[in-house]
Design goal:
Blueprint lengths: L12 E4 L3 H4 L4 E6 L6 H10 L16 H8 L3 H14 L2 E5 L7 H7 L3 E7 L2 H12 L3 H22 L3 E5 H6 L1 H12 L5 H10 L5 H6 L5 E8 L3 E8 L6 E7 L2 E8 L1 E2 L1 H5 L7 E7 L11 E6 L11 E2 L3
Parallel strand pairs: 2-3, 2-4, 4-5
Antiparallel strand pairs: 1-5, 6-7, 7-11, 8-9, 8-12, 10-11, 12-13
């Protein structure tokens, strides 16, 4: 029975301990799992700040071990086992995060020596809206997909009854210290005061670096030479090789759009793009010639940032 009013508070955290003896094992493989866009990066980043190794190729802001994840997604079990053995040999506690793991949790549970799970749950509409913003995908389809992924997680929990920590994303944001302390207790790791503070400070809504990196429209490029009659440079999508469109702004007014698909030998030779077809050229003629003092910017279509080397002031 509840002992006081505080015991009635929903902390948004639940522990499922399948084997109490097993939780005392100092060796743990922490599998961070959740529907894509549900907060798995928040959990993985907090673990990283607490000093947990998250993989050789796990980098901020998403902390996904790309090499290991590729082996798992391609069903290359031998490669996955080699990586696991290497990590297990070097680290008594290490973690792995990849939202796609919801599709092969039975495999994960079978090849990880000491798996424990951190499952994070988030409002399905919020997940779908994030995907609509970041991936330009349909809202209702996103909700249906999130619902299917959630079902896979619940089926796994029911069938396997794993040792797990279940977390509400919204509650974790509301009570950061409680979430971090609960995670320390779950994985059985003593951390320094600085590590604890770093993990708490990492947990924040709408981190700019995550929002910027985790969108399909992210592009990169450089505004190069500008003359009275031309504006040139290069631009490419970060996550695919399809040529993109770029927009020309003069004095903060959009004046032209063109495709960035001109071959650039220098870009190909530097390995920036596999085909080198990323160059663009705007021509400015007659009444549209640039004038001294004009401020020139170029931005990829659907981007939120200008290309590097922007803005430039035309010197005449």
């Amino acid at each position: 029975m509840p002992k006081n009013i505080e015991s009635l508070i929903n902390t948004g955290i639940h522990f499922s301990i399948a084997d109490k003896a097993g939780t005392q094992d100092p060796r743990k493989n922490i599998v961070v799992c959740g529907v894509a866009r549900s907060g798995t990066s928040l959990v993985a980043g907090a673990l990283f700040k607490l000093g947990v190794f998250m993989g050789n190729t796990a980098n901020p802001p998403v902390y996904e071990d790309v090499t290991f994840s590729r082996a798992m997604e391609e069903d290359d079990v031998d490669a996955a086992r080699r990586i696991i053995a290497d990590y297990d040999d070097k680290y008594p506690i290490w973690g792995w995060k990849r939202p796609s793991s919801v599709n092969f949790l039975d495999v994960v549970d079978g090849i990880f020596p000491n798996p424990v799970y951190v499952f994070i749950f988030k409002d399905i509409f919020s997940i779908a809206k994030r995907n609509r913003i970041s991936m330009h995908s349909d809202l209702i389809s996103n909700m249906r997909n999130a619902y299917r992924q959630l079902g896979k997680i619940l089926n796994f929990i029911e069938k396997r009854n794993p040792t797990a920590m279940m977390v509400s994303y919204e509650k974790a944001l509301m009570n950061r210290q409680h979430f971090v302390q609960s995670m320390c207790d779950f994985i059985g790791r003593q951390v320094s005061e600085d590590q604890f503070k770093a993990a708490v400070n990492f947990i924040r809504p709408n981190p700019a670096d995550y929002l910027d990196l985790s969108r399909i429209t992210k592009a990169r490029g450089v505004l190069g030479k500008i003359t009275e009659t031309s504006v040139a440079g290069w631009a490419r999508a970060v996550y695919n090789e399809v040529p993109i469109k770029v927009e020309l702004y003069v004095n903060d007014r959009q004046v032209a759009v063109t495709s960035a698909d001109i071959f650039r030998k220098d870009i190909l030779e530097k390995g920036i793009h596999p085909t080198g077809h990323v160059g663009f050229l705007f021509t400015r003629e007659d009444d549209h010639k640039l004038k001294k003092g004009d401020v020139v910017r170029v931005r990829a279509e659907n981007e939120i940032n200008d290309l590097n080397n922007c803005p430039q002031v035309f010197e005449g």
